[in-house]
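Chapter review: from sequence to fold.
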Amino acid sequence: MSKKATLSRRIVLEILENTQGSGEKLGVFLRSVLNKYDYIDPRDKAFIKYLTEGVVSYQIKLDYVIGQFAKVKGKMKPLIRHILRMGIFQIMYMDSVPDEAACNESVNLAVDRGMGQLRGFVNGVLRNVSRNKDKIKWPDDMSVIYSCPKWICDMIVKEYGKEKADTILASTLKPAPINIRLRENLDNKTKEEVINAIKEAGHNPVKHPYLPYAYTLENVPGMENVPGFMEGYITVQDVSSQLLVECAGIKEGDHIIDMCAAPGGKSIHAADKCGSSGHVEARDLTEFKTDLIEENIERMQVTNTSVKVWDGTVEDNKAIESADIVICDLPCSGIGVIGRKNDIKYNISPESVKELASLQRAILDNAVKYLKKGGILMYSTCTITKSENIDNRKYIIEEKGLEPVSIEDGIAEALIEDDPTAAATIKEGYLQLLPGLHRCDGFFISKYIKQ
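The token string follows.
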């Protein structure tokens, strides 16, 4: 293999070593490393991203394979386990990499990192996997099959049943699509020109059936090269997040507070809808997060949005009864976006889900205070747990005194066709989107009015 390929694998190993068990977010660290190695070929960057995310996503399954083929006394060195995971993923899930290359480069990695005495072990395990990969006997264990911690599998089965659980968990191992929002306030000529330019660039924009301005793209190594992105005509925003804003029923002139706004997609979407006579106040906990919002506001050339560093659990006296709409897309367990953020499943626990539900209620307590009489609260999460969604909906209605509002006007017929059970819940003012069942991320949307 070329030196570039060896460098690519060295970088993947560096990322895995620095993120496993450290609490460091994989996506953030991956971006920082790729920026550091900005000079390498874009194809190598794509290889690094695919291999890194693949190894993390399939980690439990890869460890099962290691256990079948590697008989070791005592605990395996973490470095060697990382190298074996990388090699096995290439052998089993990357058709573009010959098995011979996966084996050789894994041995090279071990030698480069001072583990030359284990080169024979690494080589033997990987060549054995290569010869027998089609003969592996998989256990009747959802945790291994879907490479997901057992407690998450059990929770999803308990709350949604085995059939839906299979669909949800299978979706977490599939590449997450890139969804964009085409600015609604562009004239038709500009919209057509932008979409045609994206087509000509080879990104195959496909109109999403849930919304008239949502598209799915292909072959996108970096958004900065997609026509219309740097000009602010399009932005990356999952369809589920777009649906939340669509269901809010925003009008010209509305004053909107977005409680946990980073990176700013919903705030900018809301700003487009409320027009120059309206205003959006985008808040988040840290300057790092508000900087992200401001970067997107600048790129999208939005003029009716302000940004504020604020802890949502702390009451802001100046905001009391000031907002027509408060958007609460709150910190959550993120189980609905495991397919997009592969490391989430290893960084949460049943205990942290309980803590997050309490945090969400503390933020909701203040959000309700910021609403005018007749104001609208939009509560959402990117998870699928009952405690963070349905139980909090009950809290908003029974403890905070808000009334649910139908979201029928924001939901397309295509979504009801995908999930006929949604027809009833949207009338009651909520929708649980499930990955694999719906054509978007897992997401909870609910709407309320303060009488």
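Two observations follow directly from the output. The chain has a mean pLDDT of 96. Residues 98 and 438 are 35 Å apart (CA to CA).
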